[in-house]
Design a protein that fits this description.
With 190 residues, the chain is of the alpha/beta class. It has a single domain (3-182), classed as 3-Layer(aba) Sandwich (Rossmann fold). It has 6 helices and 8 strands, in the order E-H-E-E-H-E-H-H-H-E-E-H-E-E. The strands form 2 sheets. Strands 1, 2, 3, 4, 5 and 6 form a 6-stranded parallel beta sheet that branches. The longest helix has 14 residues, at 146-159.
Length: 190
Amino acid sequence: MNAMVVYDSQYGNTESVAKAIGEALAPCPVMRVSEVTPEQLTGLDVLVVGSPTQRFRPTSAAGDFLASVSAAGLKGVRVAAFDTRFSAQRARSMSAVLGFVVRLLGRSAYAATHLAKRLEQLGGALVAPPEGFRVAGMEGPLEGGELERAASWGAKLRLAQEPLGPRPDHVVPGPRGGKPQARSQPAGRG
């Protein structure tokens, strides 16, 4: 299996998670988004992309990396996305406003959701729901057990052969309020 883990990291937490995933996945190359060119993605079977969650989105470096990949540039590649984040409970304890926004946005409050949508828009076949790994504070450290959980998730990705079916966040109402239908392509920015 030809796999790669690509990540951005500010304080080393996302990098640690990426390395744990990469070791369990293949082992395979684990590279910062700033070190990867779209040409290096050619021939991959599996691509995993990760970023810290900042302002409810991936970092600009992670977004710029995905923007550099051509449309359908990941066609036929099995993909997955992860992030590092505060737990919802931790966000509420830090600020009532932050807790409210996280509750309001739901899964969209985290970078992995945005990364997964963009990977699919680029033709990738998502093989696992977006995953989040918890940090204790803005600069970390990772909460206890998160590196082990990352390694376990990486091992599951190694075994994942089939893409996920339509996800709830990819469902739109049918014509005139009829039965919901899965989107063929996710809408919105990724």
